[in-house]
Specification:
By secondary structure, the protein is α+β, with helices and mostly antiparallel strands. The chain is 33% helix and 18% strand. β12 and β13 form a beta hairpin. The longest helix has 21 residues.
C-alpha cells in the first residue's frame, strides 16, 4: 500500500429519519446499527460499536484502554456521562517512582509497564448499558458482533493497516515487538488481509457472560497482573478489583445560541471550553474560514487555553481544579486581550494566580437519545503488553502523569492521569434540545478539533460532512525545540502559511497523505439542519431529519435508517 493517501473524492452528508451511527470503521458502524434495529437504544449501540472497534482497530483502542461517554436523555433533556478512566496502582507513589530513579526530567520510557493504569473501558461499557441502556438486550447480544468479527476474522481497512504497520515499525525502533497474536506471520496485516483474534473473542465472550467481574477478577485479571509484574510494574489484582467508573455531570459553555458539553477533569474537555470562550471575543466569521487572521487568532487562543489546562488540570479526586473560575466569561475576555493581531505572543503564562490514537463515535436513536463515546489505548497499542491468552494490549495512560512534586497532575497512589480523550454533545442554549453529537479524536488535537468542527458549522454554516472535510489546524508545543508549532493541513492557502510565518509563527505546511492523522478523525450527527441560516423555519420539514458526517481521514462511515 502506498504511503500516499489521496483526498480526491467527495462525500455527501448522510441524511436519515429514524436513527444513525457514525464511526471510524464501517464494520463497527454496522454493528451499532444492528443493535438499533433489534430494539436497542443509543447507549446499547455505542457499546456494540466500541467492542467492534476494539476488534477491528486494535492499534487505536481496546479492552486494555479507557473510555468516556456522554448520554443525552431525550425524555428529560438531561445529560449525564461516565468517566471510564483507570487509576494508577496503589503502590505507585511519587516516592516509589523516585526510588526507581525516575524524575520529572527523566520519566519512564513511554512503553514502560509503570505507565499502565487500570483499564477502564470494560467497566465503562458495562456501566453504560446499566445506567443508560434500554435493558431490552442482554450484554451477550450487544457484544455478539464483536465476538463474531474476532473469531471469524475481518478484512483490515486501509488507514488502519497503515497505522498498524507504522506502530510495528516504531516499536521495533524502540527495541520492542508486538505480540505475535496481533500479527500475521510476524507482520502487520496489509489492507484487505483477513485478521482473526480468537483470544480476544474469548475475552469478549466472557465479558458478555460474566460482566465486570469476568474482566476485573479471575482469569483476565490474573493475566493482566502477571504481564505487568513480569515487566517491572506493580499493579495488583486488588487494584483491578477496586476499579469503578464515575458518573459525571458534564461541564459546558454557551456560544452564540448553542451549548457545548464536555467531560469534566480529569479529561481535557476544559481545554475545548476555554478555547471557545477566548474565541468568542473575535468576529471569526468576518475574518473568513482558515484565513491568516482566523488561524492566527485560533493559534494564540490554543496556546493560552493549553497553558492553563496543563497548569491546573488533574484528578479532582486528589486536587482542586478551578473549573468555574477558568470558564467564567470575564476570564475568557481577559485572556483574549493578550492576543495581538500583528505578532505572536512572546510568552504564555497561566492566567490564574491560584490554582495519540483513539476512536470516537456517536449514535442517535429513534427516540432522540444520543450517546457520544470515545475509547483509547493512548499511544497506538499502548504499552504493547498483552495479557496471556486475552488478545488485547494494555494502555500506557500513565505516561501522561507528571513527576513534578506538587503539580496537580503529579502521580499518586490510585490517581487518574490528565486524560486527552473527549466526547461532546451540543444543545440549544434556550430549549436544551439536542443539536448534535460530535467529536474529533487525536491526543492533544481533540479539543482543537472539537472547536474547529463546531465553528465550521456555527460560524461558516457547513453541513456535518463539510465540517469534517475542511482542512484543519493543529497547534502543539514541541518539547524538543522549545517552541509552538502550527501544523496546517493541505488545502489551506499557501499565502496564509507565509503570512503566519511573517507574524512570527513556526509553521509546518503543507501536511499531506497519512501525516494528516495528526489532525484527528471525527464523527458528527446533527438533529436537523440548524447550521444552515438560508433555510427558514417554515421551510424546514416537520419530521425530524438526522444529518451525519464521517471523517475522510479514517476508514469509517455514517449509516442510518
Amino acid at each position: 500500500m502506498s504511503d500516499r493517501l489521496c483526498f480526491s473524492s467527495r462525500r455527501s452528508p448522510v441524511v436519515t429519519l429514524s436513527a444513525c451511527v457514525a464511526s471510524s470503521q464501517t464494520l463497527a458502524t454496522s454493528a451499532g446499527l444492528d443493535i438499533l434495529r433489534q430494539g436497542g437504544n443509543a447507549a446499547d449501540a455505542a457499546v456494540a460499536v466500541a467492542a467492534a472497534l476494539a476488534v477491528t482497530e486494535p492499534c487505536s483502542t481496546g479492552l486494555g484502554g479507557d473510555a468516556f461517554c456522554l448520554f443525552y436523555n431525550a425524555h428529560t433533556k438531561e445529560i449525564q456521562g461516565l468517566n471510564g478512566s483507570g487509576r494508577a496502582a496503589e503502590a505507585q507513589s511519587l516516592d516509589f517512582m523516585e526510588g526507581r530513579g525516575f524524575t520529572a526530567d527523566a520519566p519512564p520510557p513511554p512503553f514502560d509497564a509503570l505507565n499502565v493504569t487500570v483499564p477502564g473501558a470494560p467497566a465503562c461499557w458495562c456501566d453504560t448499558l446499566q445506567l443508560f441502556g434500554s435493558h431490552k438486550l442482554p450484554v451477550q447480544d450487544v457484544l455478539r458482533r464483536a465476538v463474531e468479527l474476532a473469531e471469524g476474522g475481518f478484512p483490515v481497512a486501509e488507514v488502519t493497516a497503515h497505522h498498524w504497520g507504522l506502530w510495528v515499525s516504531e516499536l521495533q525502533k524502540a527495541g520492542r515487538g508486538l505480540d505475535p497474536d496481533l500479527l500475521i506471520q510476524g507482520r502487520a496485516p496489509k489492507s484487505g488481509q483477513v485478521f482473526r483474534n480468537p483470544a480476544l473473542a474469548q475475552t469478549l465472550r466472557e465479558l458478555g457472560e460474566g460482566g465486570k467481574p469476568a474482566f476485573y477478577e479471575g482469569r483476565v485479571a490474573k493475566a493482566i497482573v502477571d504481564v505487568i509484574r513480569e515487566n517491572g510494574g506493580v499493579m495488583t489484582e486488588d487494584d483491578l478489583k477496586r476499579h469503578s467508573s464515575e458518573v459525571i455531570c458534564p461541564i459546558s459553555i454557551q456560544y452564540k445560541g448553542v451549548t457545548l458539553w464536555e467531560p469534566p477533569p480529569n479529561g481535557q474537555g476544559l481545554s475545548a471550553l476555554l478555547l471557545l470562550n477566548i474565541l468568542d471575543n473575535f468576529p471569526l466569521k468576518v475574518k473568513g474560514h482558515n484565513s491568516a487572521d482566523y488561524i492566527h487568532i485560533f493559534t494564540e487562543a490554543v496556546r493560552l487555553a493549553q497553558t492553563d489546562v496543563l497548569c491546573y488540570l488533574g484528578d479532582p479526586g486528589h486536587v482542586t481544579v478551578p473549573v468555574d473560575a477558568l470558564l467564567d466569561k470575564s476570564y475568557g475576555r481577559l485572556r483574549a486581550q493578550s492576543i495581538s493581531m500583528d505578532r505572536v505572543m512572546d510568552d504564555v503564562k497561566p492566567g490564574l494566580e491560584t490554582g495519540s490514537d483513539t476512536v470516537y463515535f456517536c449514535v442517535i436513536d429513534s427516540e432522540g437519545n444520543a450517546c457520544s463515546f470515545v475509547n483509547s489505548n493512548y499511544m497506538g497499542f499502548g504499552s504493547v503488553l498483552v495479557p496471556k491468552d486475552c488478545g488485547f494490549t494494555l494502555q500506557n495512560r500513565g505516561a501522561n502523569f507528571s513527576l513534578l512534586r506538587g503539580h496537580p497532575n503529579c502521580i499518586s497512589e490510585g490517581k487518574r492521569p490528565y486524560h486527552t480523550i473527549l466526547c461532546a454533545l451540543l444543545t440549544h442554549s434556550d430549549t436544551q434540545e439536542l443539536l448534535a453529537a460530535l467529536g474529533v479524536m487525536g491526543a492533544f488535537m481533540q479539543p482543537q478539533g472539537h472547536v474547529q468542527v463546531l465553528l465550521n458549522m456555527v460560524e461558516f454554516e457547513m453541513n456535518p460532512q463539510q465540517a469534517l472535510d475542511a482542512p484543519r489546524v493543529y497547534v502543539h508545543y514541541d518539547q524538543k525545540d522549545g517552541q509552538w508549532m502550527v501544523n496546517l493541513e493541505e488545502g489551506v492557502d499557501s499565502e496564509v502559511a507565509e503570512e503566519l510565518r511573517r507574524r512570527g509563527h513556526t509553521v509546518n505546511y503543507p501536511v499531506t497523505g497519512h501525516k494528516r492523522a495528526q489532525f484527528g478523525r471525527g464523527q458528527i450527527i446533527t438533529v436537523g439542519d440548524w447550521w444552515d441560516s438560508t433555510v427558514s423555519q417554515t421551510d424546514r420539514p416537520i419530521q425530524r431529519v438526522l444529518w451525519a458526517g464521517s471523517d475522510p481521514r479514517a476508514d469509517g462511515c455514517a449509516q442510518g435508517y
